[in-house]
């Protein structure tokens, strides 16, 4: 476990701010203890300092996962969020997309959301804005990126993709071995 | 009689000076006349070895040498220039080799690649028929350049090139470049075969260096300041060299630079977040256009909403406003006559 280099920390915060905007501060500045980001085998973990101290008894090779895995840095230094990050993204999300119950399953199989599957959408979201995807009963299902801004969505025809799929809770089963 | 006796005695005395040429051995000695080698498998006589060691060993050596000489005399001899010589047979003793047995020649990079891919070298004909010259021309080597010169006695300057360029010179330059490249590749092959350490960083020149090497050289150079490159500005989209063994070349890379700061982690993170959030938003043309479009549409809708209210008090007031707001896209069917009924085309749900 090591601290993120400045470059990587910046990439992480930029990516986080795409989804939760100014709420990034809340992740670090928490009243219930100090939390920090750690890097382990190119994966980014969000850990409380208390757990981190406990994890220090284990060697680099023995350690599989500590805290919550937020994502993984690719070899070209790009960060890709894992579905495990949803637990922290969902409560702080500023832009949300709700999918119709008929499209829920489609989304959970990894498909992009077309206009026909869109139930509701937050106002004023721009194109390529990171959004958290909810079911109509307000259960977070995953996250993605808007393919069209909210205003464009209104005029789009039913088959155009509105939101690109990035991750969904189906991955807990589909990508079980690479997730943590 | 005395004289005879004296001569015989004298002869006997002379013979006594020499030891006999026949040697008795308990076990037979192994002889290899080819290498002039004799191996005595008999044990030493312990008593004699203790009493007078040197004499005993000298006598033993003489005896064995005698055996070897006897064996040489059994070979066919001939006289060359007043001396008798014998031709020794092939040696039978196998001597160990001083140096390592040479292995197969290490493959060059191309040969290795060709072997992996199963590329077999095709043999070219020594001469090929040239249609422009209408004769057989050597493919390579002697008189090849002459034929080339004869064939390309004039060269066209392409339109996209400066008209004063010497195309012949250009061609020669290209060829020289190829030769130089080949030479470098040959050197690299030698280096690879002998497993010599090559400098992995440093500037090797534009022809020789690969983009990876250039990137490594750049990264190393940038981090070679007193503060291990901490205050060096970065170009936009600048990449850092990555790969096996590159970290060792970069000074300070193995030190964890992020831990050097004395600022606590939380504060450093908050500062970083602040800088990320305070970034000036880029002018997003797409967004600006879409916002402008939206404003325009709202304005138009507001206008359209007022008109029917003025005109048609006979129509339902709610209907008119609904029509103006929820107008469907026309699907490229262009403008419609304003007085015409709107319920045409397919039914929309």
UniProtKB/TrEMBL annotation, chain A:
Subcellular localization, as worded in the UniProt entry: Nucleus, Nucleolus
GO BP terms in the entry: ribosome assembly
One of the Pfam families matching this protein, by short name: pre-PUA_NIP7
Entries under InterPro entries matching the protein: NIP7_N, Nip7_N_euk, PUA, PUA-like_sf, PUA_sf, Ribosomal_synth_fac_NIP7, UPF0113_PUA
Key words of the record: Nucleus, Ribosome biogenesis, RNA-binding
PROSITE patterns on file: PUA
GO cellular component: nucleolus
Keyword Transcription regulation assigned: no
UniProt entry tagged with the keyword RNA-binding: yes
Molecular function in Gene Ontology: RNA binding
The PUA domain, residue ranges: 95-174
CDD domains: Nip7_N_euk (cd21146), PUA_Nip7-like (cd21151)
SUBUNIT field: Interacts with pre-ribosome complex.
Function: Required for proper 34S pre-rRNA processing and 60S ribosome subunit assembly.
Family, similarity comment: Belongs to the NIP7 family.
Protein name: 60S ribosome subunit biogenesis protein NIP7 homolog
UniProtKB/TrEMBL annotation, chain B:
Pfam families according to UniProt: RRS1 (PF04939)
Record-stated family: Belongs to the RRS1 family.
GO (cellular component) term, any one: nucleolus
GO biological process: endonucleolytic cleavage in ITS1 to separate SSU-rRNA from 5.8S rRNA and LSU-rRNA from tricistronic rRNA transcript (SSU-rRNA, 5.8S rRNA, LSU-rRNA); ribosomal large subunit biogenesis
Matching InterPro entries: Ribosom_reg
Role of this protein: Involved in ribosomal large subunit assembly.
Main location: nucleus
Ranges of compositional bias, category Basic and acidic residues: 287-303
Comp. bias (Basic residues): 311-333
Keywords (A to Z) from UniProt: Nucleus, Ribosome biogenesis
Source organism (scientific name): Drosophila willistoni (Fruit fly)
Segments for region (Disordered): 287-349
Keyword Ubl conjugation: no
Designated name of the protein: Ribosome biogenesis regulatory protein
Localization per Swiss-Prot or TrEMBL: Nucleus
């Amino acid at each position: 476990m090591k601290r993120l280099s400045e470059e990587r920390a910046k990439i992480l915060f930029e990516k986080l701010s795409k989804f939760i905007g100014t709420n990034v501060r809340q992740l670090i500045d928490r009243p219930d203890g100090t939390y920090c980001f750690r890097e382990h085998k190119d994966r980014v973990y969000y850990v409380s300092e208390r757990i981190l101290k406990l994890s220090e008894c284990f060697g680099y090779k023995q350690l599989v996962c500590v805290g919550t895995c937020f994502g993984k840095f690719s070899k070209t230094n790009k960060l890709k969020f894992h579905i495990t990050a949803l637990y922290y993204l969902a409560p702080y999300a500023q832009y949300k997309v709700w999918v119709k119950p008929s499209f829920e399953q489609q989304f959970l199989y990894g498909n992009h959301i077309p206009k026909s599957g869109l139930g509701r959408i937050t106002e004023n979201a721009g194109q390529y804005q990171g959004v958290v995807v909810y079911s109509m009963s307000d259960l977070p299902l995953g996250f993605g990126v808007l393919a069209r801004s909210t205003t464009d969505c209104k005029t789009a025809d039913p088959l155009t993709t509105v939101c690109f799929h990035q991750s969904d809770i189906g991955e807990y089963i589909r990508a079980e071995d690479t997730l943590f | 009689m005395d004289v005879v006796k004296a001569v015989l005695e004298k002869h006997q005395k002379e013979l006594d000076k020499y030891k006999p040429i026949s040697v008795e051995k308990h076990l037979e000695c192994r002889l290899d006349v080819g290498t002039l080698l004799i191996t005595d498998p008999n044990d030493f006589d312990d008593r004699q070895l203790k009493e007078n060691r040197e004499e005993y060993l000298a006598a033993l050596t003489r005896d064995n040498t005698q055996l070897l000489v006897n064996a040489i005399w059994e070979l066919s001899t001939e006289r060359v220039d007043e001396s008798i010589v014998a031709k020794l047979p092939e040696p039978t003793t196998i001597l160990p080799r001083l140096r390592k047995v040479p292995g197969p020649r290490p493959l060059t990079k191309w040969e290795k690649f060709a072997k992996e891919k199963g590329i077999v070298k095709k043999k070219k004909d020594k001469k090929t028929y040239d249609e422009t010259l209408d004769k057989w021309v050597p493919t390579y080597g002697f008189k090849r350049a002459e034929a080339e010169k004869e064939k390309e006695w004039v060269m066209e300057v392409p339109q996209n090139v400066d008209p004063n360029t010497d195309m012949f010179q250009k061609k020669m330059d290209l060829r020289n470049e190829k030769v130089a490249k080949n030479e470098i590749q040959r050197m690299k092959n030698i280096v690879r075969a002998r497993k010599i350490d090559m400098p992995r960083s440093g500037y090797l020149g534009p022809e020789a260096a690969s983009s990876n090497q250039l990137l490594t050289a750049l990264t190393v150079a940038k981090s070679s300041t007193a503060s291990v490159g901490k205050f060096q500005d970065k170009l936009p989209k600048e990449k850092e060299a990555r790969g096996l063994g590159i970290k060792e070349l970069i000074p300070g890379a193995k030190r964890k630079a992020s831990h050097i700061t004395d600022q606590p982690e939380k504060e450093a993170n908050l500062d970083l977040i602040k800088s990320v959030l305070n970034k000036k938003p880029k002018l997003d043309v797409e967004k600006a256009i879409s916002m402008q479009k939206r404003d325009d549409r709202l304005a138009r809708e507001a206008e359209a909403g007022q008109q029917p209210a003025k005109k048609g008090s006979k129509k339902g007031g709610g209907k008119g406003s609904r029509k103006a707001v929820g107008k469907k896209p026309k699907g490229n069917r262009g403008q419609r006559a304003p007085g015409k009924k709107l319920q045409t085309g397919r039914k929309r749900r």
